[in-house]
Amino acid sequence: MRAQRLDGPFPIDDDGLAQRRSSTRADHLLSKRRPWKLLVVLVLAAGLAASVLSASAWYAYVSSLRRQEVASSLGNVKSILGTALERDNDLLATVNSEVATHPQLTNASLIALLARLDLSRNYPGTIAFTYVENVSSAGLARFEAVTRRDPPLGVVTAGSAPVARSLDGRPGYCLTRLAAVEIPSVQAIIKDMLLQWVSPYLSAHYNFCHSSFQGLLDTSARTGEASVSSVVSLVYEAPPGMPAVPAPLLSFVAGLPIFVQVSPVYSGPQAPTTPQGRAHALAGWTLGIFDATDILDPALANEKDVSLTLAYSRPGEKPVVLARAGPRQAGVAPKELTLPAEPGWVIDVAMDPRGSGLSPAVQG
After folding, report:
1. Three-state SS string across 168-237, please?
2. Over 50: is that where the pLDDT of 360 sits?
3. Which of these, 174, 177, 197, lies nearest to 107 by C-alpha position?
4. Phi and psi dihedrals of 205, rounded to 5?
5. What is the pTM of this model?
6. Between 64 and 352, where is the model more confident?
7. Which residues contact 236 (CB under 8 A, 6 or more apart)?
8. Residues with Cβ within 8 Å of residue 198, at least 6 apart in sequence
9. Looking at the predicted structure, is the pLDDT value of residue 79 above 60?
10. Contact 287/152 with Cβ under 8 angstroms?
């Protein structure tokens, strides 16, 4: 039986009194703790906001670093490729000048000049140089006599007279006068095959102005500037009466990013400034053949997640792709780099920013 107290006109249940007292104490304690809970919530909210701000600042910082690293990498790539292309252009200009100022230059003299320049060390990627002379019909007999005494690459060939055709409509020929080949000794078998195949082309019986090279020579002679094309696009189809490229040699050439750069040579101390003057003073062309691997690879040496495309474009014309290097960067838009000091050359660089620097998700 529950005890009841008679402290007034109404009885009081002791259990109910205890419950009311306990509830009162609980409310009192809760009222004391409520400010602390609010403080904890505020502290947590402030910490969360600070974390968000910190993460955002960190992400912005790392993203800025990435942009700086990409910009720095693009600058390095442009500098390395610009230096390499300028180096090869200077080499071609040196050969041009030597041919223009020494009309009696011999094949031995050209080979000696290139040996002094130490191509493998100072001009890596250089494969060959050829001087194609602009020969008139009246001068053909003299030219043939000279090449019999001093045949390009030491190869004397016999055959029928070349097709009479010239760039400006006059009867004439574009014939190889000088040639030098620089191929590493490890590829000696390829060199022997190349010389055997190319010898008919390096004679007075192959007219470059009646071949796949005609467009390059024509453009170069007309503008007074260099023209560039990939070699493989020029040698797939053999002209009538000329040997086709041997399959192993074609496979070798197709597997390498080899290009030819054609530059006009004029008689006289200065290059003419008008098309008529250039046509009158045209002595011939130098053809430099280069392996773009030695141009592109150094630019990739210290980079990752980068792909390069080397192309050449004349004003108003579509760029001609000469070589590609580096792994393909899917989903990355390439950035086009041009070289004011070397007009015509275009470099497309696809650089994945995720491969540069720290990931924004990394905290540290």
Report:
1. CCCCEEEEEEEEEECCCHHHHHHHHHHHHHHCCCCCCCCCHHHCCCHHHHHHHHHHCCCEEEECHHHHCC
2. no
3. 177
4. -115, 15
5. 0.74
6. 352
7. 245, 250
8. 153
9. yes
10. no
